[in-house]
């Protein structure tokens, strides 16, 4: 096991294989959202640093792409192994800067590593084709090649896994990458770079830019002519901006944007399973996930029983510091997040909803909000239209399958959706009818490295994970070979 903290200075960025202070020499503070404790001062990268990182990635691209798929596979496997050897340290670091319970943080580390392991294998499966030609004495060959330098902009809610999910396919395909982690959680990104360096990833192939200069650094990464592809996870509004920024250079894009996931419980559902599924979906990471249940629709015949059982389970959730025994709910990430949750709950209650449990900041104070179930939420409540990103579960009663499909699809977003039912005809109909890229049937957690992750409508473009995930970092080249006759 490595002493990760001793391998780099917590104030440094990682550019061209070097730990650097950044061109401005300035830094920004990172704190623990659970108690406000100061954790580190981290280099505040500027546009000049972003330009240096892009140049380094460009210089490293051809040598990295020239390595055999087996060579890239072996390096990625070493990186995966090092991450798994250091789960305890990485998990503790993640919990400290992000706030999620330690067990959940360690689970994220293992989950993130699974993408590196998966794409290490997929590196050797970037298959092309030979297509029967239309003309004699010719041959049609299709090959796949890396797109080039990639920029990745990642969020704070999964500061390890979101990086791994983007870096792994990029490096497997033969691309190099520049990463801008969220300013709330840069330490997990830097720790991954320590282990990447130890695994033998060459200088310039992987670059990390911690920064609070989001706009100016983001502009470099999304407009620079040497960036071939941008992969972004975050809000739909920022996704739209990235599309505009990349238009002049026609960049390839992967955008995993906002969500407003419906969670539907039909009368014929297993009540216990539905309650457990809703609990897992809604309250993982204190509701701060893009795929968590945002609107819970329950059919009239089971509504009261579900609401009572669900509220009881939610009321028993333990809130507290990430390192306390039995804690499943940590703090929200910052004061703005807490304020938004309070406003959404206040709006719903003012319009007629009632809190079956919670409905207010937690007694611990700070950034903690009590896990909340809202009953009888009216359809005009903001909480049903906006992504909550907090531990609040709104319940809405419905009567018919047709009604709830219309309600579920009445959103600009289309990332994830869930429903619980046992009638096989209904299962098939609803799975087809939901307008989202991910559907959980009788399951509340759907993420898996083997499956494609991504949305439709204004929830984004492209897919991460699965064998589809490698294609987003490859270009398809058609070669017509002539003159093959005797």
TrEMBL record:
UniProt keyword list: Oxidoreductase
Residues of the active site: 256
Database matches in PROSITE patterns: ALDEHYDE_DEHYDR_CYS (PS00070), ALDEHYDE_DEHYDR_GLU (PS00687)
Domain Aldehyde dehydrogenase: 19-479
Database matches in InterPro entries: Ald_DH/histidinol_DH (IPR016161), Ald_DH_C (IPR016163), Ald_DH_CS_CYS (IPR016160), Ald_DH_CS_GLU (IPR029510), Ald_DH_N (IPR016162), Aldehyde_DH_dom (IPR015590), Aldehyde_DH_Superfamily (IPR050740), Succ_semiAld_DH (IPR010102)
Organism domain of life: Bacteria
UniProt-listed NCBIfam families: SSADH
Family per record: Belongs to the aldehyde dehydrogenase family.
Full protein name: Glutarate-semialdehyde dehydrogenase DavD
Organism: Maritalea porphyrae
Biological classification of the source: Bacteria, Pseudomonadati, Pseudomonadota, Alphaproteobacteria, Hyphomicrobiales
């Amino acid at each position: 096991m490595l002493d990760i903290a001793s391998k780099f200075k917590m104030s440094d960025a990682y550019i061209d294989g070097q730990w650097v202070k950044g061109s401005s020499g300035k830094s920004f503070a990172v704190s623990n959202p659970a108690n406000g404790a100061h954790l580190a001062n981290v280099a505040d990268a500027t546009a000049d640093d972003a330009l240096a990182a892009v140049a380094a990635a460009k210089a490293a691209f051809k040598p990295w792409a020239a390595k055999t798929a087996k060579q890239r596979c072996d390096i990625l496997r070493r990186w995966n192994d090092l991450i798994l050897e250091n789960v305890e340290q990485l998990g503790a670091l993640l919990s400290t800067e992000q706030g999620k319970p330690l067990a959940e943080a360690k689970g994220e580390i293992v989950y993130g590593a699974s993408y590196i392991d998966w794409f290490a294998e997929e590196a050797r499966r970037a298959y092309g084709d030979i297509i029967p030609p239309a003309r004699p004495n010719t041959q049609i060959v299709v090959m796949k090649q890396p797109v080039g330098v990639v920029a990745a902009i990642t969020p704070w809610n999964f500061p390890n896994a979101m990086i791994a999910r983007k870096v792994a396919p990029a490096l497997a395909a033969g691309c190099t990458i520049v990463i801008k982690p969220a300013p709330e959680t840069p330490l997990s990104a830097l720790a991954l770079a320590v282990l990447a360096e130890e695994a033998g990833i060459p200088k310039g192939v992987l670059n990390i830019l911690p920064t609070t200069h989001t706009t100016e650094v983001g502009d470099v990464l999304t407009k620079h002519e040497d960036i071939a592809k941008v992969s972004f996870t975050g809000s739909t509004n920022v996704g739209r901006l990235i599309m505009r920024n990349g238009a002049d250079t026609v960049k390839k894009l992967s955008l995993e944007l906002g969500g407003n996931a419906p969670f539907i419980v039909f009368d014929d559902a297993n009540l216990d399973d539905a309650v457990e599924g809703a609990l897992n979906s809604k309250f993982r990471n204190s509701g701060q996930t893009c795929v968590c249940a945002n609107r819970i629709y329950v059919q009239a015949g089971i509504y009261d029983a579900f609401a009572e059982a669900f509220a009881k389970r939610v009321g028993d959730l333990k809130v507290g510091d990430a390192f306390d025994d039995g804690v499943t709910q940590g703090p929200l990430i910052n004061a703005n997040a807490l304020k938004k949750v309070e406003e959404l709950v206040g709006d719903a209650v003012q319009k007629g909803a009632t809190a079956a449990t919670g409905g207010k900041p937690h007694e611990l104070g700070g950034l903690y909000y009590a896990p909340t179930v809202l009953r009888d939420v009216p359809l005009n409540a903001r909480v049903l239209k906006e992504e909550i990103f907090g531990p609040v579960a709104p319940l809405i009663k419905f009567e018919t399958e047709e009604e709830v499909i219309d309600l579920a699809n009445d959103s600009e977003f289309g990332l994830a959706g869930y429903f619980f039912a046992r009638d096989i005809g209904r299962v098939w109909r609803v799975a087809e009818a939901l307008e989202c890229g991910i559907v959980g049937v009788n399951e509340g957690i759907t993420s898996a490295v083997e499956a494609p992750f991504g949305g439709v409508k204004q929830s984004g473009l492209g897919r991460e994970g699965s064998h589809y995930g490698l294609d987003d970092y490859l270009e398809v080249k058609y070669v017509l070979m002539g003159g093959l006759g005797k």
